[in-house]
């Protein structure tokens, strides 16, 4: 899951595997596969980067697990937490 911010500043987490589309017109709108829409404060490029980082962490963990190292996934809400 990735953490994003609503326009009012409230944080929430979304399962990035359920994102069907991200539009920027001018607000960034996430549309999930079930049709649910979320308007978020982050720009489109930032949402894509968070999805990439999350997926990279999953792949990295899979590699580590094969090597016998166990780590926990964590929610990353800001660049400072990386």
Order of helices and strands: EEEEEH
Stretches where pLDDT is under 50 for at least 5 consecutive residues are: none
Global shape? elongated
Number of helices: 1
For the structure shown, list the relevant keywords.
two-stranded antiparallel ribbon, alpha+beta, 82 residues, 3-stranded antiparallel beta sheet
Description:
The protein has a three-stranded antiparallel sheet, with no helix packed on it. A two-stranded antiparallel sheet has the order 1-2. A hairpin with a 4-residue loop joins strand 4 and strand 5. The model has no long low-confidence stretch (mean pLDDT 87). It contains one helix and five strands; from the N terminus they run E-E-E-E-E-H. 7% of the residues are buried. It has one domain. It is elongated. The chain is α+β, with helices and mostly antiparallel strands and 82 residues long.
What topology emerges from the helices and strands here?
Elements: E1 2-5, E2 11-14, E3 19-24, E4 28-32, E5 37-40, H1 44-66
Antiparallel strand pairs: 1-2, 3-4, 4-5
């Amino acid at each position: 899951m990735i953490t994003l911010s609503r326009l009012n500043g409230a944080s929430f987490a979304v399962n990035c595997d359920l994102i069907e589309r991200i539009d920027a017109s001018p607000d960034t709108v996430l549309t999930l596969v079930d049709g649910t829409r979320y308007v978020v404060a982050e720009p489109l490029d930032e949402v894509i980067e968070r999805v990439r980082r999350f997926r990279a962490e999953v792949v990295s963990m899979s590699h580590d697990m094969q090597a016998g190292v166990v780590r926990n996934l964590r929610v990353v809400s800001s660049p400072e937490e990386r």
